[in-house]
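Self-study notes.
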Amino acid sequence: MKTKAFLLTAALGLTGALALGDSIWNYDFGDDGAFTTNNTVSTTFLPVPPSGGGTARVRVGNNAGGGFEVSDGALTITSASGGSHNKFSIYDYTPGKAFTFNFDISFNNSVSGTWIMVIGDGANFSNNSGFAGNQTFTGLQWVMGEESITSSVREGGAWNQSSTTRFAKETQYSIQIFGNNSTSSIQYGENILAANTVDIWVNDSKILTGIGKALLLDDSFIDSFMFYGENSISNSSELTISNLSYANYAIPEPGSLILMGIMGVAAFVVLRRKRA
């Protein structure tokens, strides 16, 4: 009974947030399948996001090899062999000037290739191009090397390598990104996030605090993100994404994005009680 009461209370709290225009989305990559045809785009290979959650799109580059595979609830992207991008994006979800972005990520043991993830707003999220600096609020870059992965964060108009962010091959990481593109500070949990800054958490530890945004205009809306891979010799580099969630506001507690699924569980509990 206490569990039901907790779920219902949490659901009502989230419903209140939704009523004010704040939205959260859990994205399910769907059934097993593959999409590998060169120079091809699809907005139907992956499931349609929940209401207001935008459009999901995949693109295999021009004569680039690689592509996409869904298995066990995860999306694996095999990188393009050249500069043409194998790209997954979700674009034009209900916008906000703050956001929460959560995903699990892992890389295979490749020694070549570059992976990029960016969040922002603009035409490049729905076309075949890579990111544009003026459409990007923040981003991460991973460059595969012989011994390790070199990671960087997008600040201003450049990729800045972060000595506090370490990623190993064949290891899964949970990443949470909190961004604020409004004109004033916001609070999530016990954390204050100044205007035009980003906090990045890895495995529930905050590893970058209040770093500067990229070049997206101040006080503009954010409604899209993308992942893509390029320049991997013989298409050897693979990136796997799972447990993807996103919101158009800063969710209160880092490390607690399980709450993003409470709405569905609570609705199920309420429905069963009504039927009883």
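Second protein, same conventions, sequence then structure:
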Amino acid sequence: MAGAVAGAPIAAFAETAPGLYCNEFTDVCYEVRELPGTDPISNPDPETGFTPGPVECTWPNFADATNVVVPCSTDNGYWSNKRHCYIKLTSPQLEIPPGEDANGAWYTCDPPADSCGLYECYILTYWSDTPPPGVNTMTPGQAAQRLISSFRLQGITVGFAPDPTVPGSKSYVGVPIWMWAANPTPLSYGPYVQSTTLGGVTITATAQVSSIVWNMGDGTTVACANAGTPFVVAYGAVDSPTCGHRYARTSATQPGGTFPIAATSQWQVSWEGGGESGTIPLTTTATSAVRINEIQSVNVGPGR
């Protein structure tokens, strides 16, 4: 919902449509909704994701329809040819608008110092999902989102008894199934910790699986609050103490004769930096399959 506007322009500017402010005397209007890619240069740096500002910074002199060249950066921020103002990260940040998240931020749009001689001064504060061109600072929330988006978290290696990786492996209706995260690593189960400095903010983020939800393929799900317990043959046909299931029907009628298994890891990624902290949920999924047979009974007649 990029385009939320806080505050109001001063003097004779009034909002005539969402995000559009017009001078009631001169009919000069300012579009304050975010329109990505409309600045002369829209080529984000692949390392930082920041878009550079225009090569030449100008703003229109509405009195004689000429362009006035202005410095591309001042203490008030970086010039936007689209908005005709200097833009910088608003400090302190306002409350995040409804429906938005920490990916975006509030920015202040400040006119050039000598603009008041040509038309009324205005200062706007607006929400944008991405840093405007030329602005290379971030809020802690933005830096955390950028860092966490670089994580290459993986689904677990499925531990399952019976072992689906063994040819001909199968189990039976009513027999205990054990599930667990086999050979967990920082990227498949956590903790996975990374720190970096982005947009002037140093952020540390830690990813850890909080639970695994197993879709068993028979219409049931099993939520396990830990990695589960690896099965050992010596345990015998007993239920897993931490993460298990019993099938009530055979998989014979399923495609391929197996139940598809999906293990979805629920990650909690906590971050801190720049005097702030937060938590971002993520998921990864691993798949497998299991063949469930029906236990065959043998009737033995009298005298046998």
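Instructor comment on the second fold: The two ends are 79 Å apart (CA to CA).
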